[in-house]
Structure formats: structure tokens, C-alpha cells
Design goal:
The chain is an alpha/beta fold and 493 residues long. The chain is built from 15 helices and 13 strands. Strands 1-7-6-5-4-2-3 form a seven-stranded mixed beta sheet, with helices on both faces. It has a four-stranded antiparallel beta sheet with strand order 10-11-13-12, with helices on one face. The longest helix is centred in the C-terminal third of the chain and has 39 residues. It is globular, with a radius of gyration of 25 Å. Bound molecules: pyridoxal-5'-phosphate (PLP). The site of pyridoxal-5'-phosphate (PLP) has 13 residues, from helix 5.
């Protein structure tokens, strides 16, 4: 059996309790709009449906069931309380086109979230309309373009991006019409300042940086980098997708960044990874405020709260979506921040950093090679398995796949690309010492297997519902369609 719900279908079977009421007004529809044959839906009982989807969900790796230390992703546990708050009936039944006077409660939550994130980041203004980190980047890049144009400085055509950056950074810069100039990393994991000095100039529109970087270390010379880029007339963009390394203890605004985005679906309590909705906060320094996308929430001079739209903001880069962002994600972030409070947000970075450093030192003690052994880890750390690859012919990908057999999701593999055979490991602040110890134990056992029985590791995973997938083909030629038996190619259906 293929495992599709269609295979359980039997003519005439149905879930009586869930059947929709039959509409009586279909007679009004023109004949051309009516189906000639009923849709090919599975005919199944309620019990069939419950069992099918419960079984499907059990085939997944998820944070609710497994440790999921995917680096640069913050796959942490998100408290159910934030979810419950966002699902209050008053929020669920609100309509985005309702006038502001009927949205005061929601508007106040959005406004307060903007204020909380302003305080947390040290930026002058924060808006919440981007639907993802990458859309926040795109909006930030558009603001950089608008800023230079507004000063009559159109010759700034380049965005500097460190070679360790997340792939969305160069992609956003290019989509925004800029050329990307790569800045190399020094052997200690910091940006190579000499190379940066050579790269900045009159063509520099800005630099996109992550601090801590995706190499799992804090950039120590951020003040010098800021002076260099600002001195040359460029702007600083902060990729704050994962803020849990510095929450409550360091602020990008104080590091003199001009623009930033935060992934609320990483740091602020919306589960992600399955392609569900996300949201980014976009923060700016005072000189970039006129270019912010609309709408955003503000205090209404007449009392209460209002939306600031395109009217009266001629320099805005415009809208990013039909309405004001992903309401549910924003509400989860707001509830999470209020539940934790100032002290709780600071504890997030305490435990994110403690867990990453504990894991790094335990892996090192177990004989694994850290990419930057001299450096303190941020909220994540990098192990390179180049020695294991050389000695046993077992790669980082083989380790990653074998971890699945031990009931652990793999860390991020082969990113950042600078480090050969690397695993980028982010334990997150929500995991216990016992879980971290179990991960180190599994890594050690896999290495022992690699020495004695490398095929055991190379052939992994052995216990999962599917084995190794052709992930390139899955991404390039996804085939997600079910066709009734006897119907041919996708083109016909
Ligand atoms: C996740 C991530 C992004 C992209 O965020 P999306 O919401 O997936 O678009 C950008 N930069 C870094 C460092 C990230 O970890």
C-alpha cells in the first residue's frame, strides 16, 4: 500500500458526523460552472481519517517528538501558551478589512510588539509586515537603495556580504538590483578586516552582516567594521534571524547597525521548518524611518491606535503584502515576549549560549574537531568531520543520516561552506542536559561504528520510513499530485 488516503477509499463510505450540509442553491449556477462528475475525493470513514493522519504524523521528525539541532534555524520548543493566546476567538474572527476602531485590541498588541522589539534591538523604529526573514532582507535592501537615491548618490551599486553569510543575503541583494561583493573570513572566524578595507569604497551601498556570524562566533571587531563602512558612506544591515544568542544583553542598534530583520518564527515562538507561516520584524535607525514599508501600528493622536498607511509617507518603499503581515505569528511573538518579560528574554540568551558551549566542549572532549576551538560559541557551534572522512571514508552527510537511526534530527550539514565536512549544531535554549549528553553519546557511537563497520554508517538511515532521498530531484521536480488510476501524465490532469 502506498500510504495514500486514496488507497483506503471504498465507494459509499463516509464520515457522517462531519458531512457538510448540502447546499440548496446550486440551481442558480450556470451549467458551464457545474461539474459533470463528482470530484475524485477519497471515500473514507472518520476512523480511517484519524488513523491515516495520526500515522502520517508519526513518520515525521518534529520538535514535539525529537531533538532537532538544526544550525541557524532555532528549532526550539515553543510554549503552547503563546499558541493558545493567538487562537483566542476575538483574534481568529477579526477581519483584516475591519476599520481600525474595531481592531483596537489587535492594534495594541502589534504596537506593543513593535515597542518591545525596538527596546530589544536598540533600533529607532520597528515594523512587522514582512512575511519571512528573506522578505525582511529584501525590504531592507530596497530601503538602502531608496536612502542613497534620496541623497542623490546613485553610484552605490555594491552590497558587501561575508563569505559565511546565509544564502538569502546575497540573493536579496541581487534581487534588489545590487552587485554582491564577497568579503572573506579570517582564520579565527572574524571578518577579514584588511580585505574589507580594500573592498569598501564609493560603490559601497552597504554590508549585510550576522553577529554572531553563521560560523557560530561573535564578530569581535564590529565597531571597526561599522566605522569602516559608515566612513565610506555605506549602511550596515544586520541579519538577526536568530537573535537568541544576544537577546537581552547586546543590541544591534548599539553596534551601529542601520537596518535589521529578526525572524519571529525562529526566536519568538512560532514553530517552523515545515514551510508554515513566518514573520520578520524590520528595524531601522532614525535616518531610514521615512523609507519604512507600510502599514504599521502607531498611537492615534485622537486616542487608541491606528494603522499608518501609504498616505503621507511619500518616501516609503511601499507594501510587502496585501495586509499587515502574518497576524497569528505576530500574536505568538507578543504573547511569548510578555510571558517571558525582560528577565525571561535575557534568560533565553543565557541558556542558548550555555547549551551551545556545553555541547561544543563535550564534543571536543569526545575527540571531535571544533572549527574554531579557540573561540567561545555563540548559540551554535561547528564541528568538522574532515578527519573522520579521511580516516574512515564516512562523511558529515553519513553522520547526519545515521543520527536519524538514533532518534536525533541531524544538525545543518555543509553550511557554512567554508568549513569542510561540517555540522552546524544549534541545541537551542529549550533542551535539557540529558538531551545534549545523548547527542554526544550518539555522535561517539557513530564514530566507533565508522571505524569498525563503515557500511553501517554509509548506508544509513536504516530505521526511517524512507531511506536516502534524491533531495535535488525532490526540490527541482516535485511530484505532489495524486492521479486517479488509469489517468496518464500530469499534463492530462
Ligand atoms: C533563516 C535565516 C534567514 C532566512 O529566513 P527565512 O524566514 O527563511 O526567509 C536569513 N538569515 C539567517 C542567518 C537565517 O538563519
Amino acid at each position: 500500500m502506498s500510504g495514500l488516503i486514496f488507497d483506503r477509499s471504498r465507494p459509499g463510505r463516509h464520515a457522517g458526523g462531519l458531512a457538510p450540509e448540502v447546499l440548496e442553491s446550486v440551481d442558480d449556477l450556470p451549467a458551464t460552472c457545474l461539474r459533470k462528475v463528482p470530484p475524485a475525493l477519497p471515500e473514507v470513514s472518520e476512523l480511517d481519517v484519524v488513523r491515516h493522519y495520526t500515522r502520517l504524523s508519526q513518520k515525521n521528525f518534529s520538535i514535539d517528538t525529537h531533538f532537532y539541532p538544526l544550525g541557524s534555524c532555532t528549532m526550539k520548543y515553543n510554549p503552547r501558551a503563546a499558541n493558545r493566546f493567538a487562537m483566542l476567538e476575538g483574534f481568529l474572527s477579526a477581519h483584516p478589512l475591519a476599520p481600525a476602531r474595531f481592531q483596537q485590541g489587535f492594534l495594541e498588541c502589534v504596537f506593543e510588539l513593535q515597542e518591545i522589539l525596538r527596546a530589544v534591538t536598540g533600533m529607532s523604529a520597528v515594523v512587522l509586515s514582512p512575511m519571512a526573514g528573506a522578505q525582511g532582507e529584501f525590504a531592507g535592501i530596497a530601503m538602502i537603495r531608496r536612502y542613497h537615491a534620496s541623497r542623490g548618490d546613485p553610484g552605490r551599486t555594491e552590497i558587501l556580504v561575508p563569505d559565511a553569510a546565509h544564502g538569502t543575503n546575497p540573493a536579496s541583494a541581487i534581487m534588489g538590483g545590487f552587485r554582491v561583493r564577497e568579503v572573506p573570513t579570517g582564520p579565527d572566524g572574524d571578518v577579514d578586516l584588511d580585505a574589507l578595507q580594500k573592498a569598501v569604497g564609493p560603490a559601497t551601498a552597504g554590508i549585510m552582516l550576522t553577529n554572531p556570524s553563521t560560523l557560530g562566533v561573535f564578530e569581535r571587531r564590529i565597531v571597526e567594521i561599522a566605522s569602516l563602512v559608515h566612513g565610506a558612506g555605506g549602511l550596515l544591515y544586520y541579519d538577526g534571524a536568530n537573535l537568541n544568542a544576544i537577546l537581552g544583553r547586546a543590541r544591534p542598534g548599539d553596534m551601529r547597525f542601520d537596518i535589521l530583520h529578526l525572524n519571529l518564527h525562529k526566536t519568538f515562538s512560532t514553530p517552523h521548518g515545515g514551510g508554515g507561516p513566518g514573520a520578520a520584524a524590520l528595524g531601522v535607525s532614525a535616518r531610514l524611518e521615512p523609507f519604512l514599508p507600510t502599514p504599521f501600528a502607531a498611537r492615534d493622536p485622537a486616542g487608541g491606535f491606528c494603522w499608518i498607511g501609504a498616505e503621507g509617507r511619500p518616501e516609503s518603499i511601499g507594501r510587502l503584502s496585501a495586509f499587515m503581515g502574518n497576524a497569528g505569528v505576530l500574536l505568538r511573538a507578543y504573547a511569548y515576549a510578555r510571558l517571558l518579560g525582560r528577565g525571561g528574554l535575557r534568560r533565553v540568551s543565557t541558556f542558548a549560549a550555555l547549551n551551545a558551549n556545553y555541547l561544543a566542549r563535550r564534543l571536543e572532549a569526545a575527540g571531535f574537531e571544533l572549527a574554531f576551538p579557540e573561540r567561545r560559541a555563540s548559540h551554535e557551534c561547528i564541528v568538522t568531520l574532515r578527519r573522520e572522512a579521511r580516516e574512515y571514508g564516512v562523511t558529515a552527510m553519513d553522520f547526519a543520516k545515521r543520527l536519524l537511526d538514533y532518534g536525533l534530527h541531524a544538525p545543518t550539514t555543509y553550511f557554512p561552506m567554508l568549513i569542510p565536512e561540517c555540522l552546524l549544531i544549534e541545541p537551542t535554549e529549550t533542551e535539557s542536559k540529558e538531551t545534549l549528553d545523548a547527542f554526544v553519546e550518539a555522535m561517539s557511537r557513530i564514530r566507533a561504528e565508522a571505524a569498525t563497520d563503515p557500511e553501517r554508517v554509509r548506508g544509513a538511515p536504516w530505521t526511517t520510513p524512507v531511506r536516502r532521498l534524491d533531495d535535488v530531484r525532490a526540490a527541482r521536480e516535485p511530484d505532489l499530485r495524486w492521479r486517479p488510476p488509469g489517468v496518464g501524465s500530469a499534463a492530462e490532469t
